[in-house]
Design a protein that fits this description.
Elements: H1 14-17, H2 24-30, H3 36-40, H4 66-93, H5 111-138, H6 142-146, H7 156-165, H8 174-180, H9 200-216, H10 222-235, H11 252-278, H12 287-290
Length: about 300
């Protein structure tokens, strides 16, 4: 009688299913494994909420659902698309936003001009409708209620750009906001043949629209601009412009842009503190304060 051969089953590694080592999915649900940011900052470390003017208690935010936020993001982009087309048509028609002729503008007439005026009217109407709809949604957002509405120079449209373009849950430090907006050194320039390392639309709105608004309305953030520009002028920093407006100050353009970027970065620093506090997330100090021990003087 032949001996029956007993096939040995391969041993299953116990580590994969052992209770001591939960699977990656289980860690994500239970939150047992702390990330590097949690290890870097103790849980009992006080949050830096003084700049944002917020109290220590967490405000439970009324978060926008993903479909609503995605729709709002598309609406914000479309709003600026209509605005851009309307402004270009105003230039072709040599008129202002209110429809009146620009100073020194020519009187234009003809069938083609009438078609341009009709198209301009459509763009203006859609721009106004989208602007009102966006403002209605933004005014319900906790970040607007508790921070942005009190920022002089920041309106509902700019608040919509900030809320839809940034994801505060993916920004454990303020440097992440600066990098995503193209305001971090080394990550602020495009390289031919490579993907742009920052959000071009966001940077154009922050530096071109919000920064200009801060200067025009004399926002408290303008102090950062004035101080930085004075420092740059005193040090003679910057490159000469090819066609400077003031030939006695050929570096003024470069200095203005650098000071404007610094002002926007200081706003994003306060935005980071306010938004992360509202969401109940960890708030870390800027790199120069946390690791280099340098505290920015207010």
């Amino acid at each position: 009688m032949k001996n029956a051969t007993i096939s040995k089953k391969p041993k299953v590694r116990e580590r994969a299913g052992s209770p001591e080592s939960p699977a990656i999915q289980e860690r994500a649900v239970t939150g047992e494994e702390s990330n590097s940011f949690e290890r870097a900052m103790p849980a009992d470390k006080p949050r830096n909420t003084e700049r944002a003017g917020l109290r220590e208690e967490t405000i439970q935010p009324e978060r926008l659902s993903d479909p609503i936020k995605s729709g709002l993001s598309a609406g914000v982009r479309a709003y600026y698309d209509y605005q851009r087309e309307r402004m270009m048509l105003d230039g072709r028609l040599e008129q202002k936003k209110d429809g009146t002729a620009k100073k020194g503008g020519r009187e234009l007439s003809g069938e083609v001009i009438e078609l341009l005026r009709d198209r301009r009217a459509v763009c203006f109407l859609e721009e106004e409708k989208l602007g009102l709809a966006i403002a209605k949604i933004i005014k319900t957002h906790p970040l607007w209620k508790h921070f942005l509405k009190d920022v002089k120079g920041c309106g509902e449209s700019m608040a919509a750009v900030i809320i839809t373009e940034f994801d505060i849950n993916k920004a454990p430090t303020v440097s992440n906001l600066w990098s995503f907006a193209g305001l971090a050194p080394g990550k602020d320039r495009k390289v031919k043949g490579q993907k742009c390392p920052f959000n071009q639309f966001l940077r154009s709105k922050l530096c071109g629209v919000l920064g200009s608004s801060f200067l025009k309305c004399n926002s408290p953030y303008r102090k950062y601009y004035d101080d930085m520009k004075h420092r740059l002028e005193s040090a003679g920093w910057g490159m000469d412009s090819k066609n400077p407006t003031d030939k006695k100050r050929p570096k003024a353009g470069h200095q203005h842009k650098a000071a404007n970027r610094y002002m926007v970065k200081m706003f994003l620093r306060d935005l980071y503190v306010a938004w992360r506090t509202l969401e109940g997330l960890e708030v870390r100090k800027p790199y120069q304060e946390e690791y280099l021990g340098k505290k920015h003087e207010e």
